[in-house]
Structures are given as C-alpha cells and as structure tokens.
Write a structure and sequence with these properties.
By secondary structure, this protein is mainly alpha-helical. About 45% of the residues lie in helices and about 5% in strands. It has helices at about 35, 40-85, 110-130, 150-155, and strands at about 95-100, 105. The chain has a two-stranded antiparallel sheet with strand order 1-2. It is elongated and about 105 Å long.
C-alpha cells in the first residue's frame, strides 16, 4: 500500500454495494429468477414464429376483407354513374391511362406490355437480392433485352 503524506498507510477503499443483491428486496420478489437466469428454450422460437405467421395471416385476411368492400363500393359507384349519365355524357371520351408507380402514364392499350416489362425487372431484382454474396466475383446473369418504345408512340 502507498503511504500518505504523514507516513501512515492508506487502507483500501471499502466495497460499496450499489444494488441490493437480494432476489427479494424489501421482502418482495420482483422478477421470476427462473425465467431470467435460464437459457432460452428453442421451442420458444418456434412458438414465436408460429405466432408471427398467425398474425400475418390475420392481417392479410383483414386487408383482403377491407379491399373487397372498397372494390364493391367502386363497382356500385361506377354502375350508378352509368345509370345517371347514360348515353348523354357531356364529354367526349379521350382515352384511358394507368398511372404507374414512377408517376408516368401508360396508355390503356400498352398496360399489359408495360406490366410484363415491370414484372421482368422485378424478377431480375428479386433474383439479384436472393443470390448469395460470393466475395469479389461478379454475378453473371443472362442478358435481357427489353423492347424499346419511342416517345412518339406513347404520345
């Protein structure tokens, strides 16, 4: 031990308990020590995965039911509009278009072609994401040639 300024030895600092080490502080058991100390049961993970799957199925069922109601309401309003306007619609029909996710418009006649192109791109992106990382070696895929459309054709 080191000596103080007047030649006396200093005693080691006393150990101080910052947290009570009793499993029943003040006579009350706050947590189940068996649950906090034991190692996890592998079956708990399986049960958790099953609960997540049930929750996913529940959400999917609710969303499907709500979307069905919305689709029925849309159909009802479309039918009612046809009945109200009939052949006396005051405006000339100019065309039908689909608003894409990228905020571009696709003419009705080209919707199937555009959806097929987007499906192919989504498939390529999904395949790229699911392939394992192989270090520095490049990922080789078959080349894909998409049909080109000029801007004049879409106008």
């Amino acid at each position: 031990m080191s000596r103080g300024g007047d030649g006396e030895e200093e005693s080691p600092p006393a150990a101080v308990a910052l947290v009570e080490s009793s499993s029943k502080p003040s006579g009350l058991q706050l947590v189940n020590t068996h649950q906090t100390i034991r190692l996890g049961d592998p079956l708990d993970l399986v049960a958790l995965a099953q609960q997540i799957q049930k929750g996913d199925e529940f959400v999917r069922a609710n969303v499907t039911n709500k979307l069905t109601v919305i689709a029925e309401q849309i159909q009802y309003l479309q039918d009612k509009a046809r009945q109200e306007w009939g052949p006396s619609c005051p405006h000339e029909f100019l065309g039908a278009y689909k608003l894409q996710h990228d905020m571009s418009w696709t003419p009705y006649k080209e919707i199937n072609k555009r959806d097929a192109e987007m499906g192919l791109i989504d498939k390529l992106l999904t395949q790229h994401q699911t392939q394992p990382d192989r270090g520095a070696s490049p990922i080789v895929t078959d080349p894909v040639i998409l049909p080109t459309t000029s801007h004049q054709e879409q106008s």
